[in-house]
């Protein structure tokens, strides 16, 4: 385990960074709005240590957790807080992305100008999507003007994060959406960050967006509330190899620990029919798209014909989460059906000013039992107009 020595060295370095945070005082609340004062009071009430809450103007930040002052998360905080006496609260906290959304998490890097940070984000999502036995999956919302469809937006902190914080993320919301943004501090360590470290940190922040807390939250001195902190069954109380350990900004990507994957499998398992459709919308690997450049190019829908007992199926085309029309009806349950570019273009692309269609999904319905359905993760169709 030659990694171990290196790892302990990095821990020492990270601790130096981490200890810096503690010395930074809270700014005077003068000039603060009522909302921000109330938020600060609540954070303290919920157990965040006063000397760890940093005032960044627009946000309070504790470690790499952000609290927006004005777009107040008060309801969210309150919801977490009020749940603290409920027996199931901690499981719910970890399981916040709803089942219907967990395999269709949309993100945007439109505001990430740095090529290498972009690549780190793509690589990190590819790693998360590649965890076996978990349904989590992702889609890159490719256009800036479609950004309001993105669940997680990546952008520069624009100087708002302290110099010792490399990035910051949000946890999932109470309505089952992932944490909605990740801020990146390009200036961290004077911008001297290896690509593998960028990848590590993006995997870490995405983990927060998925509802994972720091594996070492206790030794980091983080409180249980407002987020809850349930140990996931099958994982140990500490895991030095976990990507989700805090204070690890200079670590390099070395894969998930076995317990990281156990955690994701536990939080986001496949449902009964989640593997019914097998293509398109397969697991994200740097991108997820179909090309229909020539008239004979096919968009082929494939499904596991043995999973559902039905003679025929209905196949629908969705875009932006809304049904746009039928892809095909009364389709024999053979496991495959395709439409060519001409059909797709005339039926679903007509009038579009883009040479692509973003955030597409295919839904399959068992005609024998219409409540039995499966819908793909989002994918993009590129035309060659
Ligand atoms: Zn973190």
TrEMBL record:
InterPro entries, per the entry: MetalloPept_cat_dom_sf, Peptidase_M10/M27/M57
Protein name listed in UniProt: Matrixin family metalloprotease
Gene3D superfamilies in the record: Collagenase (Catalytic Domain)
Short name of any one Pfam family annotated for the protein: Peptidase_M57
Organism: Chitinophaga hostae
PROSITE patterns documented for this protein: PROKAR_LIPOPROTEIN
Taxonomic classification: Bacteria, Pseudomonadati, Bacteroidota, Chitinophagia, Chitinophagales
Keywords: Hydrolase, Metalloprotease, Protease
EC code: 3.4.24.-
GO MF annotation list: metallopeptidase activity
Signal peptide per UniProt: none
SUPFAM superfamilies per UniProt: Metalloproteases ('zincins'), catalytic domain
């Amino acid at each position: 385990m030659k990694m171990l020595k290196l790892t302990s060295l990095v821990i020492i370095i990270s601790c130096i960074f981490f200890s810096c945070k503690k010395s930074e005082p809270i700014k005077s609340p003068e000039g603060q709005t009522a909302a921000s004062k109330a938020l600060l009071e609540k954070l303290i009430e919920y157990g965040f240590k006063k000397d760890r809450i940093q005032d960044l103007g627009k946000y309070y930040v504790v470690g790499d957790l952000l609290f927006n002052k004005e777009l107040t998360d008060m309801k969210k905080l309150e919801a977490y807080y009020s749940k603290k006496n409920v027996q199931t609260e901690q499981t719910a906290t970890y399981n916040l992305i709803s089942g219907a959304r967990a395999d269709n998490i949309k993100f945007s890097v439109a505001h990430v100008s740095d090529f290498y940070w972009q690549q780190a984000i793509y690589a990190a999502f590819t790693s998360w999507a590649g965890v076996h036995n978990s349904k989590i999956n992702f889609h890159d919302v490719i256009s800036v003007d479609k950004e309001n469809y993105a669940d997680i937006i990546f952008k520069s902190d624009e100087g708002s994060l302290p110099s010792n914080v490399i990035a910051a993320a949000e946890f999932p919301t109470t309505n089952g959406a992932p944490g909605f943004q990740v801020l990146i501090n390009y200036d961290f360590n004077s911008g001297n960050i290896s690509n593998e470290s960028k990848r590590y940190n993006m995997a870490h922040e995405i983990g927060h967006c998925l509802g994972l807390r720091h594996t070492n939250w206790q030794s980091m001195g983080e409180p249980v509330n407002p987020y809850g902190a349930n140990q996931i069954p099958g994982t140990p109380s500490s895991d030095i190899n976990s990507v989700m350990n805090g204070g690890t900004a200079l670590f390099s990507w070395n894969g998930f620990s076995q317990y990281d994957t156990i955690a994701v499998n536990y939080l986001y398992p496949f449902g009964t029919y989640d593997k019914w459709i097998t293509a398109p919308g397969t697991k994200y690997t740097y991108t997820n798209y179909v090309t229909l450049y020539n008239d004979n190019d096919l968009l082929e829908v494939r499904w596991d014909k043995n999973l559902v007992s039905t003679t025929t199926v209905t196949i629908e085309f969705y875009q932006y989460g809304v049904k746009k029309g039928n892809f095909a009806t009364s389709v024999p349950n053979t496991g495959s059906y395709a439409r060519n570019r001409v059909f797709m273009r005339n039926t679903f692309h007509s009038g579009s000013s883009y040479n692509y269609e973003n955030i597409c999904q295919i839904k399959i319905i068992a005609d024998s039992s219409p409540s039995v359905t499966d819908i793909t993760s989002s994918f993009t169709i590129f035309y060659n107009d």
